[in-house]
Amino acid sequence: MAASVKNRDNSSVLFYVICYAFILAVALISFIPFLMLISGSFTSEHAIRFGGYSLIPKEWSASAYELIFKTPMTVVHAYGVSILITVVGTALGLFITTMAAYVISRKDFKYRNVLSFFFYFTTLFNGGMLSTYIFYIRYYHLKDSLWALVIPGLFNVFYLLIMRSFVSAVPAALIESAEIDGAGEYRTFFQIILPLLQSGLATIGLFIALGYWNDWYNAMLYINSTDKYPLQYMLYTLLQKTEAMSRIASSAGIPVMDMPSHSLKMAMAVVATGPIILVYPFVQKYFVKGITIGSVKG
Amino acid sequence: MKNGMKLLASVTALALAGSLLTGCGKKGAGASSGETTNLVMYVIGDRPAGQDKADANFNEILKKKMNCTLTVNWIPWADFTNKYPLLFSSGEEFDMAYTAAWLNFTSLAQKGAFKQLDTLWPQYAPKNYARQSDAAKQEATVAGHKYCVPTLLATYTAYGPIYRTDIMAGTDWNGKMNTFDDIEKYCDIVKKTHPELDPIDIYAQGSEWDDTYMYSTGYRSSKNATNDFLFYNPEEKNPKIVTYYECSTIPQFLDMMARWNKKGFFPKSALADTDSTKTQNGKAAVRTHNIDTYQGYAILHPEWNFKYQAMNKYVTHLPFTQDAMVVSNTSKNPEKAMQVWELITNDREVFDAFFYGILGTTYSLNDKGEYKILDPNQYALSDMWAARTIEFTRNGVGTPDDYQTQRTGYEAFMKSGPEAEQAVKFEAFAIDTSKIETEYAACQNVHQQYWWPLELGYTDAKKGLAEYKAKMEAAGIEKVRAEIQRQLDAYTATIK
Fold it and tell me: At B231, which helix (H) or strand (E)?
């Protein structure tokens, strides 16, 4: 009896040690670059050029942050745009997705299979960047409009299917009884179904919100005015500018003088991503709950 | 299910019909009778924060003179490779755009992205048309039609070392920088006295010392840019296209570069370094580039006493299509666009407002007529570099005196004798790679992969050169050479 207990202790201890070591390694690999980002933003430009990046600033200097906050309007504007499109887009997208999911999940809906197939079909093929671009520019006339940042991300078939499984978890008997009691379709949806979908709304809402917050691609395609740039796109242009200019510098006769310094790039990255990093721990539990909740028993 | 499919079909048909209607109701949002037309222009660059002021000021002047306004849209550096071609392939409506060789002017022209300017240009921009040199007009021609308005500002093929002289104080440097031996002596001294600097600025986009060397022996690049792999000598009666491995002087060049590598003139990982600003930030001492970069460095750091020496045997003009303006095929007002361009390139007040901004707010002028941007965080020059002309362009405050004297020197040199004039005759030769696109791209890739390290002495000179030759032949260099030779022969016949 004593011998088997000792064996189990040894092998499980070894198991735990290996697991923790592995997780520690992965955590370090994820964390160290971020630490270098923060330290780089507080290092002087000269130290970076001659000494490279390091974990602890070689020469402390907050001049990059001073420069950013001297003209804070670009960053403030970009934050404003990002928050606006995230809030509006999430609200609208959630509403549309949930309604569509409810409709498709109702077994007494005659055309439910046809519509489902229609939605599913669009995930197989895509017109490509150019046809999407032509649609938005020429037919919807959304060039340089904030709607061009909101509309593309409103409806995602994958989220629709997840939502459908949430809605299916609501017993059909509830809907029938609501009908018997005289509720119309809208009343049933808003007052009976929606309150029961809290975790589903939270999960899909978070996915959609994250999609909007991180999106820079739509801004690159459709936005011209600098005061409509969302946060991620502003950061992207700043970081890519030096790459692009140095690439063409030898063939074009263009003076390539005003490059953003290394520490400025780091500081911009911290300012742009810092606040959202702080939000993550609070919403993390919803993510975990949402992903595993699909297995609710009916 | 059958009912379902019928319903689906009718819904789809309705949707298609409905989309037809979205076209109506949005037209007529622009020109009604007698109203100001608004033209749209696209340029490449990051829009300065305070550009609204300059735009408003310019539009005031433009409205007074021509009853129209101009909206300038800026495509950021980060996305121009994606967004610029999209402008033309999506059929977006706009009037003018900046173009250059590095924006694929020729291939876009062949695809029908631009309006033909054969009649529009002399009719609506006659003064501009008259001032263009024959070479410029020929460079603007693709497949027999003119598709762009080149810049009226001459730029030169001059390439050579831009070097700091402040670090030479107190050493026994003789001040000469005319040959590659002089450069080597300079770098030796830098290595000894300033070990924290890289003597030579080399970074991930490759070294341009090979092109500088070829130019110094009299060869011209076939594509009129650095990083080329086919050259020809204008001194020959019927110039032949040659590659690096056929030039008899290249082995001694490679030996020299291997020697420079061993001496540590550039770091071992130079080709992995993405920092293109080493010289202007004080990390490197000498860099080879054109005279405008020299001007830029000298303005940024007058205390470092930069100097410049062009090493070409024959300096000629760079193609004038290096900066050019195109009218889009989707433009509704091409005549107005040409008239606006004529105004910008001929009227001093309009040009200053367009290119520099508001005197006293965005820029100031000193008594030499040199400009200074008053707040570089808010304002900058226009990125429509094609608008510059020789008469109107201003130098920045701090431009070294020898910048202008060297440029006038180049103009004089181009008229100085039969060989120089012969070289000038080849200015307008531009290659058309549409028939050999795949092979040309493959050769360019091989060049980057095998020649760049070889040129910097990272691989053995003899073996590397043989390997480079073998890989180029495998990539199709002979087919490329034959096609370009054919074009060169046709061109040579026209200038005899």
Answer: strand B231-232
